[in-house]
Amino acid sequence: MLKLKTIYKTFNPGTTNEKKAIQNLSFTLNDGDFVTVIGGNGAGKSTMLNLIAGVHSADAGSIVLDGTDMTKLPEYKRAKLLGRVFQDPMMGTAGNMGIEENLAMAYRRGKVRTLRWGIQNDERELYREKLKTLELGLEDRLTSKVRLLSGGQRQALTLLMATLQSPRLLLLDEHTAALDPKTAHKVLTLTEKIVSENKLSTLMVTHNMKDAIRYGNRLIMMHEGNIIYDVAGEEKKSLKVGDLLAKFETASNGEFANDRMLLA
Questions:
Q1: Strands 169-173 and 82-85
Q2: What is the DSSP letter of 255?
Q3: pTM score, two decimals?
Q4: What's the pLDDT tens digit per position in 2-34?
């Protein structure tokens, strides 16, 4: 469903700040896969997501989503095919707008604009039903400003907005990293439920190895811009944190690139 072929990306080439972020990366995502992506800082995880989303353009290689070659497509043309949730809960919503207004923007994404304006009653009822599934009481606060919500509520709303139109691919970039453990667990549970019910193909970047093992049907580990470990099915289910640490230690020649991986 998604094919990345021999992707390269270097930032600030030819300068003292040159950074080879992605090197000869090839990766295939099957339809319906829920893949967790793990690795140290600078491993290329977020860069890979940004290349898929069109935030950055690849120096070489190709990106094909569901038969559509997106390699040269600008970010705004890819947006109607993708859903994305960022690490910062503030990035996915408009704080000065109401909950229903934020949902309306997401609902209209990729649709032809008309002279018709405002939110109709049937549309408002759809938003209520969707919000009920979050079990946060937001269905009774449709006109509340989003800036008044907690970080967890806002991230749950962002997740709902990102999946309202059933995107071909859902990108989750450490979307629970800024939340406290209890709230993060709730958002991850919601994520699993939404992905499963809508059969969404998903890439979820995380620093937390327990979460990487627990969620999804496949796990990939990145190091220095490439995939060094790819595991799925029963083998993934039987993984322990110690197994991932051993894999990473071998790949990095005994030097951990990021203490957060040890602490996660």
A1: parallel
A2: -
A3: 0.90
A4: 999 999 999 999 999 999 999 999 999 999 999
